[in-house]
Amino acid sequence: MAAGECKRWTSDMLAVMAVYSLSIHADYRCRHSGACCTADWDVPVELPLYKTLDEALSAGRIAPAGRPGENTTVLIVADPLPDEAAAMVARTATGDCVFYHRNSGLCVIHRDLGEPMLPATCRHFPRLAVRDARGTFISLTHYCPTAAGSLFRDDVPIEIVEDPPAFPDADYEGLVVTSDDWPPLLRPDCLADAQSYTAWERHMVATCADDSASPETIVATLERNARIVRSVSPATGAAIVNAIEQLPAGYVRVPVPEALDASLVHYHDVLKAVPDEWRPAADTRNLAECYRQYVADRWTAFDAPLRRYLAAKAFASWTAYQGRGFLTIVRGLEAALALVRVEAARQCRDTNGPLDANLLRDAFRHADFALNHLAAGDELAEGWSKVEA
Length: 389
Known about the structure:
The chain is of the alpha+beta class. The chain is about 40% helix and about 10% strand. The chain has helices spanning about 45-60, 110-115, 120-125, 145-150, 195-210, 215-230, 235-245, 260-270, 285-295, 305-315, 320, 325-350, 355-375, 375-385, and strands at about 5, 20, 45, 75, 85-90, 100, 105, 125-130, 135-140, 160, 175, 185, 190. Helix 5 (about 195-210) runs antiparallel to helix 10 (about 305-315) and helix 6 (about 215-230) packs antiparallel against helix 12. Mean pLDDT is about 90; it is low at about 1-15.
């Protein structure tokens, strides 16, 4: 299997391994916001689960909370279906999952049959997992409002933690990296190894945790550091780790952008990575003006959640395996921060008011919706990899 494919672990991969997450995500639990259940997403149902749910529906042990669309059954079995799916969960005319109970915010399947009876897509959301020889690394997509809210917490330092209570060792759906796959690249012509990539990942997160640096300074500093590390010769694992340990202590200080132009370039590049059938129209009306009027002067007030967002993008990175080097990962961080600027300007435009915590939370959500749920990760990594030249 090529690295970059999203799969659940097979039985031969299920040896007990360490699980890691960021501290801000380590105690995650669903707060029933309903964002995932009302997102108008296709939810496939695996064959064994389909049989169980179909029997439960027939026996009256569960009943849909909403009415399926016209001429549609609760579990849709008509072709075409995704690989390994026996059916798709129907949606209401407004795009809600038919099993979502709006008044309570609960899923009928989860409530009446238990979490194990949920389709895999529902069980794993909002988790973004990478499993490689080092263990299982779990981040979250901040399209989930609860995950987005975790970026604003200040009760724990930003760090990588082992055995987070929210994520026991299990068969998480995600990026599976086997012994037949390449480890992350240091640069296009040189591989890193598990030890050196772990050192780089931890360096990125530790840099994001420094409250003396702005998000823009963090990205610029990580770019400088990636260029230093990638120049190591000979690039053995030990030499890479040594170079990371000896990186300069100072930062590359850069100001908050006064204009949105560079961020809009990143925004359009992300849209190009969205498959044609899902690509939204580019909505940039008055964004540059709204950024100057409502966002730029307020941006530094939210350095802390922005740093946490960057840490979440640096940790458990699929780009590390899909891209062509450490610089590619940093370019992805730059793009993610740029998308938050664009989405912040959009939120302020649509509400005709200055940036605040609620609008920034929604900006995080929309940025991650584009990065994690619309754009193809391998396409993003290919575009970001151009920086390696």
